Amino acid sequence: MSSNEGHLTIIQHLDELRQRLIKIALALVVATALSLIFVQPLFSLLLRPISGLTTVSTQVTTRLFLAETKVLTTTIVLPAENPLGSSTTISATILLPQGTELPVSFLSPQEAVKPVFLRPTEMFITYFKLALVMGVGLAMPLIVWQVMMFLKGPGYSGLSRQEMRSLYVLVPLAGVFFAVGVSFAYFLLLPFALKYLFGLGGDLARPMPAVGDYFSFVTTLLLAVGLSFETPLIIFFLAKVHLVNTKKLSSWRKYAILAAFVIAAVITPTPDPFNQTLVAVPLIILYEIGIWMSKLA
Q1: Are 208 and 145 a contacting pair, CB within 8 Å?
Q2: How confident is the model at residue 253 (pLDDT cuts 50, 70, 90)?
Q3: What ranges do the domains of the chain cover?
Q4: CA 146 remoteness from chain centre
Q5: pLDDT for the residue numbered 5
Q6: Which of 12, 71, 123, 193 lies at a C-alpha separation of 20 to 30 Å from 81?
Q7: What is the pLDDT of residues 162-172, one digit of tens each?
Q8: Looking at residue 269, what is its pLDDT?
Q9: Are 77 and 59 in contact (CB under 8 A)?
Q10: Interval 6-33: pLDDT, tens
């Protein structure tokens, strides 16, 4: 048997990679096209975290000038030092001639925070970006499958059959962990972050986020937190291929705690310690789950 039998040449190896990439690209195109149908519900879903936010009421002081003469009838209380000799309530008629200047102070009304688009094409581009993000999510099973088939094929021999079986188990779990991370960010982290950011300096400037910037911020945050929740599975796979072990992971615990707070500071859009701790604590727990899973590798 030839030493090259059962293995692909470099050209065949690159050709297989090209075919896999073409299939992935076609899957993305089809999934993105289908996602355009569901962009509106996704659009509304991502707007929900700011649906209850309002602008801050501020004290407004100004002056009004009467456009015409006004006659007002009101009740006034005269002080004790008056010609009647005692504190007296009387009815009075006041004449305010045209052009009278009146100082006025009032609270500005609260209004709902709502994104705006500043360019004619911004809404179209935002819709397409959301469709692309949804398309990647829909095509992810096929993308992962193509990657696994490429790793399993004769052109690549880096993973053993046992390691490939571990990948078959990890792929569906990766989807579950990612969904949990996105849900955590959407329901817990995002509302706190948006309330803090839009309330910061609200008495000095009115929050009017550009729709493109808002959705980029939200999708980036959801993606970053979702990927960070894959930590236990990554640790399990690294332990499976004997790159790490339980003893090493336990000895790295203090560095993992520090890294969790650093990652939380990067992911969290607010500088307050509450939101950073809200992200760091789950990351530390996920690392501990990873240590436990490494015992099963």
Answers
A1: no
A2: very high
A3: 10-55+112-229, 59-107
A4: 29
A5: 45
A6: 71
A7: 767 777 777 78
A8: 78
A9: no
A10: 456 788 878 888 999 999 999 999 999 9
User: Residue 184 and residue 224: Cα distance in Å, rounded?
Assistant: 12
Whole-angstrom CA distances from 33 to 26, 44, 64, 133, 137 are 11, 19, 56, 11, 13
SS3 per-residue string spanning 22-47: HHHHHHHHHHHHHHHHHHHHHHHHHH
Predicted structure pTM score: 0.73
Tokens of 8: 């692909």
What single string gives the DSSP state of each residue in the chain? --TTTTS--HHHHHHHHHHHHHHHHHHHHHHHHHHGGGHHHHHHHHHGGGTT-BPPP-EEEEEEE-SS-EEEEEEEEE-SSSTTSS-EEEEEEEEE-TT-EEEEEEEPPP-B---B--STTHHHHHHHHHHHHHHHHHHHHHHHHHHHHHHHSTT--SS-HHHHHHHHHHHHHHHHHHHHHHHHIIIIIHHHHHHHHHHTTTTTS----BHHHHHHHHHHHHHHHHHHTTHHHHHHHHHHTTS--HHHHHHTHHHHHHHHHHHHHHH-SS-SHHHHHHHHHHHHHHHHHHHHHHTT-
CB 107 within 8 A of CB 60: yes
Residue 118 has pLDDT above 50, yes or no: yes
Q: Which is nearest to 242 in space by CA: 174, 159, 177?
A: 159
